[in-house]
Amino acid sequence: MILELGELNESDIPGLIDLSASVGWDYDEHEVGTLLRSGRVFGHKNAEGRIVSSAAIIRYDTNLASIGMVIVHEECRGLGLGKEAAQRCASSVPGNTAVMLIATKEGKPMYEKMGFITVDFIHKYICDEFASDKSVDGISIEAFIQADFPKILEVDAAAFGDKRSVFLRNRIRQSKQCLVAKNNNGEIIGYGLSIQGPVNLILGPIAAPDSEIAALIVEKLALHHKGKLRIDVPEGRTDFMSYLERSGFVKANTPPVMMKNSGAMPQRNHSLYAIASQAFG
């Protein structure tokens, strides 16, 4: 079997969507497009040119990168393709770059062999029917305008642990909604995005100074949505997760966050209440 590993581009979007569907993942052209515009995607193709593996890496502004979309078609498993693609991703950034990923249960042993260690966990929540019940005095939630971008970038960098200007521009462009939370003085103190996927409306990233304001952002993003919701919450957001469960969210699983070239998560200010996705961190 001849399998060639190379870098993929926008002409490969249909093949990447087919590959993700083969393992039950719901990537669409918008999500794959954001991955390609924000980072680099590698994969193997067979002799017929069909994509049978993939891995993406998004390098952020300073010293952090995120690996995601690591997929191997079931017909080609056991050949080391996932490891090879993920290693190509890791070797595409400078050697001192801290690389993070959110592992599947099946992928965790492979990443450990590559030198990744578990440093945290993400709580994946799904909701079939959302029950709204929040209001917070003194906070206004408004639609994003372009003039808000520098402040959102600043809020996100403090929450996430690195500035991610290219990704954030692309993600806002992809979003169904981008909202900002402002205090009484009209200052932006938080923000949140919703992304419409084929199955779920994905809520995140969400950054806010406390769980009440994070919950208010969720309320506004989910308002009038008919369909499934998904949100991925960092470890330690106990009050926020209790709110989600009261609102109809059910925890689906708790995948590990793994890092290489760093023994800990990047320094954060504890204001990240939902990540963008498991591919972007």
What is the compact description of this entry?
By secondary structure, this protein is of the alpha+beta class.
Q: How many DSSP H or I helices?
A: 8
CATH class category of the largest domain = Alpha Beta
The overall strand count is 14
Q: Taking all residues together, what is the mean pLDDT?
A: 95
**Strand proportion:** 25-35%
Oligomer: single chain
CATH architecture of the largest domain: 3-Layer(aba) Sandwich
**Structural class based on helices, strands and sheet pairing:** alpha+beta
Taken together, the total number of domains comes to 2
CATH topology of the largest domain: Aminopeptidase
Q: Helix content range of the residues, please?
A: 25-40%
CATH H-level homologous superfamily name of the largest domain: Gcn5-related N-acetyltransferase (GNAT)
Largest sheet entry = 14 strands, mixed
How are the SSEs placed, and which strands pair?
Elements: E1 4-8, H1 13-22, H2 29-38, E2 40-45, E3 53-59, E4 64-72, H3 81-91, E5 98-102, H4 108-113, E6 117-127, E7 140-143, H5 149-160, H6 165-174, E8 177-182, E9 188-196, E10 200-207, H7 211-222, E11 228-234, H8 238-246, E12 249-253, E13 256-260, E14 272-274
Helix pairs in contact: 2-6, 7-8
